Amino acid sequence: MSSKGDPGHGHVIQLTGRDRTIEDTVMVARGDADGVFPWVELHPETRDHMALMRDEIDKKVEACELHYGITSGCGSNKDVAIPPEELDRYQRKYVKTHAVGFGDFVDPEVIRAMMFLRVNSFAVGNSGITLELCDSILDLLNRNIIPAVPKYGSVGASGDLIPLAHLGAVLIGRPWAKVFFNGVLRDANTVLLEEHLIDQDRTTLHELSAKEAMGLTNGATYILSLAVLAVHDAQHLVELSDLGVALHLEAVRGELDAFDERPHVARRHQGQIDAAAHILGLVAGSHRTTEEAQLVMLPYDKCPRDDNPCRKKYPPKADDTQVKGPRVQDRYSVRCAPQVHGAVRQAITHLASIVELEMNASTDNPLIFPSVKKPGNFDVLSAGNFHGEILAIPIDGVLIALANLANIANARLYALLEDKRSYGLPNDLSGGKDQDDTGLMIAQYSVAGLVMHMMGLAAGHSRFTIPTSAGQEDYVSNGANAALALRESLGFLEKVLAVEVMAGCQAIDLGAPHLGEELSVLGAGTQLAYDLVREHLPMMGDDRDLYPDIHDVLALVEDGTLHAEISNL
């Protein structure tokens, strides 16, 4: 990674502890469209303030005052005083015993966000952390040397102790520690030597001093980093779910009264209003969602004067065309989409508001403040800002919301596959002539499996707690497991929506020959999405391999291409 100012870096972000955004964090975590990361540093005025606050911590140590986490042990050892001459040794011992995570390593983008957000929390100034510790973390971040952190182990209280301790293990040079260096997993010390961050004289990147081991780990920053990225991705996916509705409307020639602004304004919920407006915008200009299109009988429509219960053959006989009455209303999964998608939007918005506050907050323990009773002095206050409950509860809310979003998408998909509910499209959206074609039948099975898994993930992690530290820490948040479930759930939702989009395009193609050119015109957004999908795979006639088809569409969802296409409207 290049040094500051070289082409390998984008713009500079200066941390103050007060003004960072979700967009900033996503940029630091993932880079821009070209893979370029911003350079991150502490603001000069912030550095001055942090130095003053650190001086106050050092004075407490020199005076041999007993303060939790500064001159005492941790957890159930809170009353154990540590002599000043032993404090540096204690920091190393603390990291050694706290870095005990399990499972695969979490994606480096999560840890990039965690490093960025942890330093920003220190930048508020109440933690009393040294500038040297912050600079060391930012040295790693700016060189794209990212500590390898196992996914599991945090209980979401006393901070994300275990994930953050794995960051500490790299800082103090533990021989087993690993890092991702420009995306490649390697031994940490080897990389630090190659990058001249350590040498024979300086064998560790940073020697932790009083309070720093606990300060590094006492914050729900792992939960927060997962939540920030999840909020960003969820906001995009709920908009793609609106596209699923719009494609469904085009496919079944749905009615649009349910998306008229007036009913939604009357109910007053902004998420619902936004969802309805977005769906209506996607089908703007469509000829398929008109009464003229609805009056056309497609081949598999059950003719009102035909008493034969058997399905008609495809293509239809000439006398199968019938004029029928206008569409009154569509099923709930379509007509109530603004209400359901709007509720999901508002759950995500609520989590986003919590996340943005937490990003610019002091989440350490203990914290240091100017004294109220003794002007000129400073108080060390031991509290619980490390606790992850403020994140865990709204994360659970979004998990429930996403499971519902996937479930309603599956309901629309299921309806498209059944000729009795698709207004004349062939069963299973089969485009071939063979009677034994299964079309997209089994793709819906796979979606159903994902949706049920998402329902399980949404069971409510914040409802569970197990005491730790000999009962001293007797109520934990379980927020890290909730946040990991949210990240997993978003991955499942991407797959559900990819199949719904693919099915919508297939259904549009199957109906087009019978509507004619004039009535087959798509809306502004649906046309863009349809064209993009058809650039990557053609309509399915006879049954064919669906695995590559689904993954071609999934790639458009995962890399943001499909969302970018419709967001330009």
Task: Outline the structure in words.
It is a single chain. 51% of the residues lie in helices and 7% in strands. It has 569 residues and is mainly alpha-helical. It folds into two domains: 9-219, Orthogonal Bundle (Fumarase C, Chain B, domain 1), CATH 1.10.275.10; 228-567, Fumarase/aspartase (Central domain) (Fumarase C, Chain A, domain 2). The protein has a three-stranded antiparallel β-sheet. The chain has a two-stranded parallel ribbon with strand order 1-2. It is elongated.
| CATH third-level topology of the largest domain | Fumarase C, Chain A, domain 2
* Radius of gyration based on Cα positions: 28 Å
CATH superfamily of the largest domain: Fumarase/aspartase (Central domain)
Strand order of the largest sheet: 4-6-7
User: How can the largest sheet be summarized?
Assistant: 3 strands, antiparallel
Query: How many runs of DSSP E, i.e. beta strands?
Result: 9
- Global outline: elongated
Structural class: mainly alpha
Return the domain count. Answer: 2
- The unreliable regions are 1-7, 303-323
Q: So how many helices?
A: 20
Helix fraction bin = 40-55%
State the separation between the terminal residues, measured CA to CA: 36 Å
